[in-house]
Amino acid sequence: MLQKVPEPSRITFFVEADFVRRDQLAFKTGDGVESGQKIQPVLGNLAYAEASLGGTVTSVFSHTGNFGKKYTGITITVDKGKTAAGSRFQEAGRDITIETAGNFLRCIPGGLPDGLFAFADKIHTIVIQGADEDVLGVTRAYTVKHEMAALKQGIDVLRKISGARQIVLTIPGAMASEGGTAGVEIKTLKPEYPAANPRLVARDCLGITVPAGSACEEAGICFISAEAVASLGKARDTGMVPSRKMITVIKKSGEKVMASAVIGTPVGDVLTACSEKVNENDRIVFGGPMTGSAVFSESHPVEADTDIVIVQDAGQIPGVADRSCINCGDCVRICPARVPVNMLIRYLGAGDYATAADQYDLLSCIECGLCAFACPANIPVFQYIKLGKYEFARHNAAEAEHA
Amino acid sequence: MHSERKLVVSHAPFWHDGGSIAARHYNILLAALIPVIAGIVTYGVPALGVVALAVSTAIGWEFLMNKITRRPVTVGDGNAALTGLLLAMLLPATMPWWVVVTGTFLAVVICKQIFGGLGANPFNPVLMGTAMLMTGWPMLMDFNHMLADYVTGFNMVDPLWSAKYFGPETVASFTAGDLLLGKQAGGIGTAFGLGIIIGGFYLMIRGFIRWEIVLSFLVGVAVTALAFNMKNPDAYAGPVFHLLAGYTLAGAVFFATEDSSSPVNLTPMLIYGVGGGVMTVLIRNIGVYVDGVVFAILVMNLINPLIDKIRPKAMGKVA
Predict the structure, then answer these.
(1) ipTM
(2) Inter-residue contact B29 to B21 (CB < 8 Å)
(3) Which A-chain residues 228-267 have CB contacts (< 8 A) with chain B?
């Protein structure tokens, strides 16, 4: 069943750009925005969002995400009158090039990865992911099943704009027949988590092991969600940037609802439309139960890459503990990347990130979260690993800068 | 505008498989109770006294150390109770109370808490405590001496002692069935082999202990005993006897598998298990101690950090 979430009265966008002073902003409260307009909120920074609806800017604010990532948020009060004055994308014509895609289509539903543009000359293989990376999600599989025509169009666009020699579509094993009509090479994935993890797909389906610590794009493989490819197809077809995002909503009861919401819609609106009630001390997770991130407000908007939204009741939330590792080895045996988690966690706990990376394979972690899922001591292993990677990178960057 | 309810924010994963340290320890405790109850049935009230005293004092020492070191009270995770029970398993039923209390003090305080508590101990605390008792008061750990007054209806002699000093033909009366059913003089919870095997299968199937260690330990014992037996059957008992007599089964299931002091990678687990098994029979057959399990596993604990470095290359690791 598809739940169409009505157009919201307010939309918010987070653009990955930090602003320090107000006079760096290209927008201020009261400015008018037309639907389809490209919003580049910080002067001199090319990061942008595309207004999915028109209206009036009601606030521009600084937002800090996980691990200190800086964003500029912009909230627009929707005014139905300010619709489609035509975006520059339309003027650029239907012949999409890599430049127009980079300029206008990065924020299409599903989201185009930065690596597609940053490593454009290196990419030899594009993997269209028709299987969701996290458990419970069916957003991408839904696209493969219901939007094959748009997906084919998108594959056509991709073929033209990228230099990739090989285009592959990965689908869950059970959907082999649905994928067959896409006209590209099909790889079916095992029905077990984390088979759809990009690095595992690269190894198991393409026979390429991406070196630890480098992006898949550096190894020539670019992963794009099936929904983004279908959106590319729709963009070429209509000349408009599509604005509705498909989301797998998982209610507290475990019931799954497919919802379609305008990008920028507050998650609270999505949940209301799905008749799910959020109470004090519940948890809302963007992304799946294994790798997603919790948000602290029901105003948090649906973003281009929000595939799954989960609501957990306060009573269902498992805790974490400040205990030491008992060396049971459950994490080591469950780790698909063969990381010695039991040793790694000792160095991460002590803040010795350099040793963790050099000797205990911190950078080999593919971030599936299974170690913390299985840890009987309830140690937040995955959080330690993410923090370790972040601190290690920050330290290296600082050293490079002062070298 | 949505009402701003306070939501819980934390890090992924947002699911957990439900396992816990306490569940682990209580399950091992449950499995260990099978042979221990058999021991209590055989030896009566004195055995019950030793078990009760060991468990309660182990919990007491842990609580005291938690308080003294101003750390969270960890008695609830079941490890102290398990340490007490496992120590009692290895002791003769008539052990004086002060030795039991000393034993749990050595195990919990000296061999675990001083190193930083659960997970930080380099050696199996119970075996370390037992080794200290064995070297400190060898007479009190001698089953022939301690259980001399018992009339149980079976040959009340420590089979390993008899086989070591008087040759395997002196223990010919111990059939494999007798040994499995606990008809041998020994520790409170180490004689009833069948019970240990049942408990061991339960723990291996549930994943609370690592089957690789258990099996490789037993293989190590069997192969070495077989080699000695084939070389000189008059002087050395066969593999079945060594597998079922003394601490072997208890060592394989409850002691070699202790989390903190045993390896977690496949090859190291096999090396560790086989090494422990080989060492056990070497000590029994050509060493000075009657039973080698305690020292064999402690020696393997010692090399555990080194052998556990043998591990598969992580994915994507260059060089």
Answers:
(1) 0.91
(2) no
(3) 266
